[in-house]
Structures are given as structure tokens and as C-alpha cells.
Amino acid sequence: MDKLVIEGGRPLSGTIKVSGAKNAALPILLAALAVEGPITYTNVPRLRDIHTTLKLLEILGCASSFEGNTAKVEMCDLKIEAPYDLVKTMRASVLCLGPLLARMGEAKVSLPGGCAIGARPVDLHLKGLEAMGATFDLDAGYIHGTCKDGLKGAHIQFDFPTVGGTENLLMAAALAEGETMLVNAAREPEVVDLAKFLIACGAKITGHGTSVITVQGVEKLTGCEYRIMPDRIEAGTFLCAAAITDGELIVEDCPLFELEAVVQKLREMGMTIEEAEGGVLCRRGNGLNGANVTTLPFPGYPTDMQAQIMATMCVAQGAGMIKETIFENRFMHVQELRRMGADITLDGRTAMVRGVTELRGAPVMASDLRASASLVLAGLAAKGVTEVQRIYHLDRGYERIENKLLAVGGHIRREKE
């Protein structure tokens, strides 16, 4: 098992490049199950979850290759079962259900795993697919779905805008008979990217990026070449890295529109963020101040950037309040930040962060993907040495982040524990 060793207290400076978005790449790769013919994906991040997804696709009958940041996938002999050994490590595996049911009329997918940040039930996925004609049984930890007469278009209203549910039903509806309308659909950029990929393959989709998505089913989807969008969460993490270290970074391939809520908060805290030659320039103005943040579905402030802005507030002047409304167990990084000298008070789903003069290096342990990123940020700003343990979480969402940070002046290295 690896750990990161960080000698903090140094401003970052230079150009840092954003990789492709994991949260867009995973559903877009799994959408290959609904597509006939070869697909070439570019700008694919080299992450553990991507390798797991390609292994899963191979088990389900798709030939694949992955060189550099280009993946190629083609369905050969499609199968219906996604086994526990792979699904347990990656929650996105449940997105097999929609395309397999649409293509094969049957799917058997293990109940999913992933980060332990709270309950993320799949009942909205199943409820929507049932409205399209599927029936489900729970058998020995597997969801077994069938639709002998094929999926039919339906009017589906989500109880709340679920990203995974919207993606699963979007893939299913692309091949369903007739029209499907998804109401109160998720508006996240990664959902939009999936819709754009499906359209490139021949799907008829309108309204993506709004709360009402309409899909006219087609008989088949065909392969294409598609570039995965840049990772807005990685980009936001780099903006916070400039802020917490009092550095100056050019963030290359930074999706400003998709990061609007994060950029707005960082500007409120005193950061200058503006388009510049080669990317987006990020640097401090006159000091750093606390701010109030509430996580919300897009276009609100993303829950995946909550831990990172909390770490940044730890060295800001004054106080800020963070309210987590998406996941009920997403403050596990607080205890580790306190070990580094942070002043954070918890009250249920609300955290009060009071800025301190300096953080101090300490051994800390990552509990989930974004918590890992917050501890790396804190380590970059802290006085002394920080050891971030259990970084296999970090490797699920950041493509060799230590190499990128090293290139802009961070004193950071990977070691075996």
C-alpha cells in the first residue's frame, strides 16, 4: 500500500494540466454495452476505476485496449452478469443495468460498492426501469432484471435529481421503443457528456443540461470517436491548491462554466481567477477569507469539492460554515484535519471552520476519495511533514496527482507504507 509524503509550506507556481473526468468516463465507457461497432475514447484518465471498468467490459464480452489516454472498446459476445468481485470496488458498475436491459433484455448486476460516504440507494434506478417494462428480483446480493418484451418509453419523474439514475435511464431510453421523458433529471456536466456521447452514436436526445430530458428511442447505436470532458473536480482541486499555498497556477484545460459555483466561492474568499494564455490563472489577492458553502446538485456547489474548500478555509482569516446536504457521512476528513491543527466544529451536517495561523504536518489517513484530496492540500500548506496514508482512494480519482504537483513546486513523493 502506498502513501504520500509531503513537505509543506511552499507556494505552488507554474502550469498544471487537468485530466479527463472520471465521473464522465465511467458511464460513457459502460455505454459501450449499448453500442454496435468499435468506439475510440480519447482524454481518458489512467485511474484504477477506469481499469476496473475495462475489466468489467471484457467480462461482459467487450474487447478493449488502453494506451496512453486512449481506450478502444468493441462488443464481441455480450453477456449479462456483472460479478461481485469487480462491482464491489466501484459503485458506477450499477450503470450496466440500463444498457444491458435495453440491448439484451436481461441483466444480473451485483449490488454496488465504492466510497463509504453515505447511503446511495439504487431504488430510483430500478423504479425508473420498472416504468419502462423491466422486472427485478434480488438474488444472493445480485439485482436480476428482465424485460422479455423489450423496454418501452415512459414518463419518469425522479424524487430528486439522481446522477446515476439519470445516466442509467438515459442509456436504457436510447434503445427503448418510443419516447422517454426524464423529469427532475440531474443536470451535472457529466450527465451532459454522456448524452453527447450517445448522440454521437446516433441517439435522439434533447434537453440534457436541463431538468427535463426527452429521448426518442432508436433501433441501434453505432460506434464513434469521442473525447471525454476535462475533470471539473480535479480542476477545482488545483484552484484550491493555489489558494491554500498562496501560489499562482495556470490550470490548463480548466472547465470554467462547469466550475462556476466553485469559482464564485473562491473569488468570494479573495482569489483572482481569470482566463489567461494557456488556461485559467488562479492566485490570491489580499489575503484569504472564510465563506459559507452549501453543497447542492448542479449548478449548485458540488459535494465532491466540499472537503477541498474546507481544507482551504482552515488557513483563511475569520470563519466559514459548510453545510453538506448530499451525503450524510461526508465529514470523515474533519478528524484528520484537526490532527494537523485545524479548528473545525461539527454539528450534524454542518461544519464551522475557523481559520488558524498555520497547519502542522502530521500522519493522517484518507477515508474516501475527496477526503484524500483535502489532506493532500492541507499537507501542501502545513509546516513540516505530512504523511497521507491509504491513498488508494486518491488513485481512484486523480491521475498521479503527486507528479503534477511536483512539477509546480510541491515537495511531494509516493512511498510504500
Automatic annotation (TrEMBL):
It catalyses: phosphoenolpyruvate + UDP-N-acetyl-alpha-D-glucosamine = UDP-N-acetyl-3-O-(1-carboxyvinyl)-alpha-D-glucosamine + phosphate. Transmembrane segments: none annotated. GO terms for biological process: cell division; cell wall organization; peptidoglycan biosynthetic process; regulation of cell shape; UDP-N-acetylgalactosamine biosynthetic process. Its main location: cytoplasm. GO terms for cellular component: cytoplasm. It is found in: Cytoplasm. The modification 2-(S-cysteinyl)pyruvic acid O-phosphothioketal is found at residue 115. It comes from the Bacteria. It is an enzyme of class 2 (transferase). Pathway: Cell wall biogenesis; peptidoglycan biosynthesis. One of its GO terms (molecular function) is UDP-N-acetylglucosamine 1-carboxyvinyltransferase activity. Gene3D superfamilies: Enolpyruvate transferase domain (3.65.10.10). Residues 7-405 form the Enolpyruvate transferase domain. The active site is at residue 115. UDP-N-acetyl-alpha-D-glucosamine binds at residues 91, 120-124, 304, 326. Its EC number is 2.5.1.7. CDD domains: UdpNAET. Cell wall formation. Adds enolpyruvyl to UDP-N-acetylglucosamine. Belongs to the EPSP synthase family. MurA subfamily. This is UDP-N-acetylglucosamine 1-carboxyvinyltransferase. It comes from Desulfovibrio ferrophilus. The lineage of its organism: Bacteria, Pseudomonadati, Thermodesulfobacteriota, Desulfovibrionia, Desulfovibrionales. The gene is murA.
